[in-house]
């Protein structure tokens, strides 16, 4: 199960490359966030709380069938078996339903916090997780301002679970299952630029219907999932105190000032683990 001197220095080289790439990623301008990222616009004035989106999500992602229904005063949280949930809120304009899932931030804090880039922002826009790269630190969970990533604590082979905006479907030319199956057309899929244009158009054309606020346009530096509402968002369970700049901006200066050993060490440990694991497998096969 040992690792030779040559392999050790190879791992150091890989770790150094990881650090360099990480710094390059953080060095990107905070406002240079590719407006052609795809996303979803969720119009809470159209949602009827039917939970068809939940059922479609579960089927598409091979999750257990969802239980429970939206009830005002009772928050149904996301967990490792639920990538999206619908909650109900009593408001001055009656009962309003809100679909919750990963926000797919334009500059995702979870991706910036991931030392091995297991959690990463794809070129298309969705933020996804690669289990082959994950070292299990769970920094993605701690860093997310929306508290989205969930860990499978009760699994022998745990994963980080969350909405991927049906990335595999997107690669196949399809749209997210929730958007495709929503009977009320409360979920619209498109590029972020198109969705912002549509959201502004609805607000301008229906000022008595919508509040003048597109949630996700600026929150946390901008998100791939955008919301419209007929009432202020703080009455619908949204965090309206989030900063407008992206969260990775907060850690940029800190990471540049941290000695490299502290950033390299986790990546090095992951490399050592993989090397010794492979060696152990070969030894077992020879026996």
Short description:
It is built from 9 helices and 9 strands. With 287 residues, the protein is an alpha+beta fold.
Tell me, rounded to a whole number, the average pLDDT.
85
Distance between the termini: 13 Å
Structural class: alpha+beta
Low-confidence stretches: 7-31
Overall morphology: globular
Strand line-up of the largest beta sheet: 8-1-9
- Most strands sheet: 3 strands, mixed
List the secondary-structure elements in sequence, H or E. HEHEEHEEHEEHHEHEHH
CATH class: Alpha Beta
Helical fraction: 25-40%
CATH architecture: 2-Layer Sandwich
* Count of the separate structural domains: 1
> How many extended strands?
9
The total of helices stands at: 9
Q: In CATH terms, what is the fold-level topology?
A: Alpha-Beta Plaits
Tell me the fraction of residues in β-strands, as a range. 5-15%
Radius of gyration: 21 Å
Task: Describe the protein in words.
With 287 residues, this protein is α+β, with helices and mostly antiparallel strands. It has a single domain (41-277), classed as Alpha-Beta Plaits, CATH 3.30.70. Helix content is 36%, strand content 14%. The chain contains nine helices and nine strands. It has helices at 5-26, 52-60, 109-113, 139-143, 167-171, 177-181, 192-205, 248-257, 260-286; strands at residues 38-43, 85-91, 94-100, 119-121, 127-129, 150-151, 160-161, 187-191, 225-228. Strands 8-1-9 form a three-stranded mixed sheet. A two-stranded antiparallel sheet has the order 2-3. Strand 4 (119-121) and strand 5 (127-129) form a beta hairpin. The longest helix is centred in the C-terminal third of the chain and has 27 residues, at 260-286. Residues 7-31 have low confidence and may be disordered.
């Amino acid at each position: 199960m040992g690792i030779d001197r040559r392999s050790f220095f190879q791992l150091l080289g890989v770790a150094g490359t990881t650090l360099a790439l990480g710094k390059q990623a953080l060095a990107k301008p905070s406002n240079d966030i590719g407006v052609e990222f795809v996303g979803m616009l969720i119009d809470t004035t159209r949602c009827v709380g039917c939970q068809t989106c939940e059922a479609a999500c579960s089927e598409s992602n091979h999750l257990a069938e969802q239980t429970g229904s939206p009830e005002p005063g009772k928050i149904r949280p996301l967990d490792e078996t639920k990538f999206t949930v619908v909650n109900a809120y009593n408001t001055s304009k009656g009962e309003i339903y809100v679909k919750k899932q990963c926000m797919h931030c334009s500059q995702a804090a979870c991706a910036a916090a991931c030392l091995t880039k297991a959690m990463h922002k794809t070129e298309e826009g969705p933020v996804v997780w690669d289990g082959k790269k994950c070292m299990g630190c769970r920094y993605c969970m701690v860093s997310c301002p929306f508290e989205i990533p969930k860990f499978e604590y009760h699994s022998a082979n745990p994963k980080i679970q969350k909405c991927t905006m049906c990335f595999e479907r997107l690669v196949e030319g399809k749209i997210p299952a929730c958007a495709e199956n929503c009977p009320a057309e409360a979920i619209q899929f498109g590029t972020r630029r198109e969705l912002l244009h549509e959201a502004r158009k609805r607000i301008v054309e229906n000022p008595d219907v919508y509040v003048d606020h597109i949630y996700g346009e600026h929150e946390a530096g901008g998100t791939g999932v955008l919301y419209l509402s007929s009432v202020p968002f703080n009455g619908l369970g949204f965090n309206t105190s989030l900063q407008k700049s992206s969260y990775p901006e907060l850690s940029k200066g800190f990471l540049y000032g941290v000695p490299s050993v502290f950033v390299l060490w986790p990546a090095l440990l992951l490399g050592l683990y993989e090397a010794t694991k492979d060696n152990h497998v070969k030894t077992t096969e020879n026996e």
